[in-house]
């Protein structure tokens, strides 16, 4: 069984990764939107698919953090 401090560390790390993923998604979508005229259609589609995949991963991290917070509530 994990200690309470270990769970808090994992939550902090996963929140950091979630923030990083959201920043990457935002950067890619913003860059794609501003350069849409100069990029080929295939590249634009690839970048938007990449954003969808990263968004799915970010959502999974979000759900994992929520589960860990519930696990932390069980200690109290």
Structure overview:
The protein is an all-alpha fold and 76 residues long. The protein has one domain. The protein is built from two helices and no strands. The chain has helices spanning 4-34, 41-75. Helix 1 (4-34) runs antiparallel to helix 2 (41-75). The model has no long low-confidence stretch (mean pLDDT 84).
Give keywords:
0% strand, 76 residues, mainly alpha
Offer a quick outline of the entry.
The chain has 76 residues and is mainly α.
Outline the fold blueprint.
Elements: H1 4-34, H2 41-75
Helix pairs in contact: 1-2
Distance between the termini: 15 Å
Radius of gyration: 17 Å
**SSE sequence, one letter per element:** HH
Q: Provide the structure class.
A: mainly alpha
What is the number of independent domains?
1
Overall shape: rod-shaped
Largest sheet: none
Low-confidence stretches: none
- Into which percentage range does the β-strand content fall? under 5%
Number of strands: 0
Mean pLDDT: 84
What's the helix count?
Answer: 2
Q: Into which percent range does the helicity of residues fall?
A: over 70%
């Amino acid at each position: 069984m994990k200690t309470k401090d270990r769970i808090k560390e994992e939550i902090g790390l996963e929140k950091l990764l979630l923030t990083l993923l959201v920043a990457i998604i935002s950067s890619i979508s913003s860059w794609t939107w501003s350069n849409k005229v100069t990029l080929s259609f295939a590249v634009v589609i690839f970048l938007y698919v990449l954003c969808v995949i990263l968004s799915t991963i970010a959502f999974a991290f979000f759900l994992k953090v929520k589960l860990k917070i519930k696990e932390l509530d069980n200690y109290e």
